[in-house]
Every structure is written in structure tokens, then in C-alpha cells.
Write a structure and sequence with these properties.
With about 350 residues, the chain is an alpha+beta fold. It is about 30% helix and about 30% strand. Helix 5 links the parallel strand 7 and strand 8.
Length: about 350
């Protein structure tokens, strides 16, 4: 990859620089309490720590679902041993309960982020960072483990073969290549990353029905276990209707906070966030207040239940809240949403 600094009358290439040690890469990633690495939003909870009798992990984090994520960093080409190290840490963290993770997070905030004696709990911070309407329960944390390997290069015939083998057996191993650039004239340093193996949930399925179990169970979770019966019926009806929109692909049920309908060109263009007594339809577009009121009137929900907001990264989204006791015209809802995403130019 080549990077350039653009000026009114000039274009200057920014030189790529090698890092002297892993700690330099780690310091660049852990500048804040959270980050996106390899298309995964992460809330950091630990750095350079040990898990019981195991070795030292680089970064420990939590994703939106409350799963633990072990991040292993290599400044140069990743050796094959990095897989063994990451798997060792993941196997040791798999039985960790919320109290342990919360303790890790408190220590991280005090030692790395300069918090005082009363840092926020992991429950509070997780709900705020991922913009959840309801915090996860402690038992929902660490139900699964994920691995992110970050290196300047991965051997296609050796290490990536091992990564792909694990991914084919539903171990979510994400591989990310990094490059560091520095422009001495303007004192700018850049860190570029490229996910050459993305999260499994974002990859097109090439293994037949290998993920059919998670889809079946996920559907059961969102319709029968998470909501009350009336809300579950509404979720099923709305998802069924929205699935008929040509530009949306089949729903993905295997995320606990939401059901996703992938757009043909954008990942998770439309999300249905499920709750006990309601569901929320999130669409990544802007809509003025006059149109919001028209939408509410057409589909049969109160005006205040259609509103414009932003996600935790500041991206716009239109939110439509639906409850079983509203007189919702689901067919009209489907047509309105189809028109919205079509007119947005996607």
C-alpha cells in the first residue's frame, strides 16, 4: 500500500517505517479504551497479562456480544507459533466468569487509562460503548472466544492454511496485516491495517450448511428465548416480510443482540435489534423529521418511535421501534423500508 499527503499544489509520498518491537505496535493500538481491529469493534479489558499459569497475552478485549477476544501482535511476519500461543490463551480464558473479566477491566482502566478509585463496571462500559439499550447480563459474557492475529505479513502456504483449517471448524480466527507510515515533515504517523481473514460472520458461506446449527439456534434465541411470546411473534413476522426485499440477503440469526439482513453491497446494512418487549429496526441512512412522522403514520406506530440517531462511531441511522401492542401494518413497513434503502442510492 502507498500513502500520500495531498497538498494544494503537491502530492508527497509518506514513507513506510518498520517497528523495532511488538510493544511499539501495541502502544499504537492501545491509545484509547477501545478500537476496531480486523472489522471487529473491541473494548479493551487487559494488556500484557497472564491467564492463570499460561504465558503473556498482548491484548484481551470484549466484542459487542460479550465474547472475549485474544489479540496477538507481531511486528514482522507472523511465525506459526503465534497460532499455538493464541489458542493456549483462548483455552485458558474460556471458563472465566464476569467477575474475573470485570476485575481485569478495572485494573486496565487504572493502570493504562489513568482512572481513579471508581472506574465504571464492565457492564456499564460495554453497554455504553456498543450503544446497547439494555446491558448484557453477567452470564452472557464470555460464551465464546475469538482470536485476532496482527502481523506485517502472513505466510500463505503455512500459517494461513492453519488459520483456514480452524475457521472451517468454526474457530473464529481473524488475520490482520499492518503497515506503519511516518511523515516527518508534518509529524504525522499512520497505522494501516487490512483484514485478510475477516470475522466468520462477515464471510460468505462456502462450506454448505456448516453454520446451519448456529442459524437454527440463533433463530430460536431471538424468537422464543429472548423476547416475550407476543414480541417473538412480531419479530418473526417482520423478519419474514423484510426477507422478501430483493436487495437484502437472508437474515443472519447468530448474533445475540440483533438479527442482520445483509445488503448486497454493505455489511449489515439493516439490523433488527431484539429485546424482551420490543424490536428496533436500524437503517444506516438519514431522514428528516417530517419524513419520520410520515413513516410512523404509514406503518402504524407513534411518531416518537421513528427517529434519527447515530451509532457509537457517529454514523447516521434511522431507528424504527416496534411493539406488539401497536397496530403495525407489517406489509406497509416492508414497502417503506424497501423504498428507503433503494432511494438512499445503495
Amino acid at each position: 500500500m502507498e500513502l500520500y499527503r495531498i497538498e494544494p499544489d503537491n502530492m508527497t509520498r509518506i514513507s513506510e517505517r518498520n517497528l523495532d518491537e511488538e510493544e511499539q505496535l501495541e502502544n499504537r493500538l492501545v491509545r484509547t479504551e477501545a478500537a476496531q481491529i480486523g472489522d471487529v469493534e473491541l473494548l479493551y479489558i487487559g494488556r500484557q497479562g497472564t491467564i492463570e499459569t499460561g504465558g503473556i497475552f498482548d491484548i484481551l478485549a470484549i466484542d459487542e456480544l460479550g465474547n472475549t477476544v485474544v489479540v496477538e501482535l507481531k511486528r514482522n511476519e507472523a511465525p506459526r507459533s503465534v497460532i499455538a500461543q493464541a489458542l493456549e490463551y483462548a483455552s485458558e480464558i474460556q471458563d472465566a466468569e464476569y467477575d474475573y473479566l470485570n476485575s481485569r477491566y478495572s485494573s486496565f482502566l487504572r493502570e493504562e487509562q489513568g482512572y481513579g478509585d471508581e472506574p465504571p463496571s464492565l457492564l456499564e462500559a460495554h453497554a455504553e460503548y456498543f450503544d446497547l439499550d439494555e446491558p448484557l447480563s453477567p452470564r452472557e459474557f464470555n460464551t465464546e472466544q475469538r482470536l485476532i492475529l496482527v502481523a506485517s505479513k502472513f505466510d500463505e502456504n503455512k500459517l494461513l492454511n492453519i488459520v483456514d483449517f480452524l475457521r472451517n471448524h468454526d474457530v473464529d480466527v481473524i488475520a490482520v496485516e499492518h503497515s506503519t507510515y511516518r511523515d516527518d515533515d508534518s509529524d504525522i504517523e499512520l497505522l494501516a491495517t487490512d483484514a485478510i481473514r475477516r470475522p466468520l460472520a462477515q464471510e460468505p458461506s462456502t462450506a454448505g450448511d456448516r453454520d446451519s446449527h448456529s442459524r437454527v439456534y440463533g433463530r430460536k434465541w431471538h424468537i422464543e428465548e429472548k423476547p416475550n411470546p407476543e414480541t417473538g411473534e412480531l419479530i418473526e413476522e417482520i423478519v419474514s416480510q423484510l426477507s422478501t426485499i430483493d436487495s437484502l440477503q437472508d437474515p443472519s440469526w447468530n448474533q445475540k443482540p440483533y438479527v442482520a439482513l445483509d445488503h448486497q453491497t454493505l455489511q449489515y446494512r439493516l439490523i433488527i435489534r431484539t429485546q424482551v418487549t420490543q424490536l428496533q429496526i436500524w437503517i444506516g441512512l438519514t431522514c428528516d423529521s417530517k419524513d419520520q412522522n410520515k413513516i410512523a403514520d404509514k406503518i402504524g406506530v407513534p411518531e416518537g418511535e421513528v427517529e434519527q440517531s447515530t451509532n457509537n462511531r457517529g454514523d447516521p441511522r434511522l431507528v424504527i421501534r416496534c411493539k406488539p401492542d401497536y397496530d403495525i401494518d407489517v406489509s406497509t413497513l416492508r414497502n417503506v423500508i424497501e423504498k428507503l434503502i433503494t432511494s438512499s442510492g445503495e
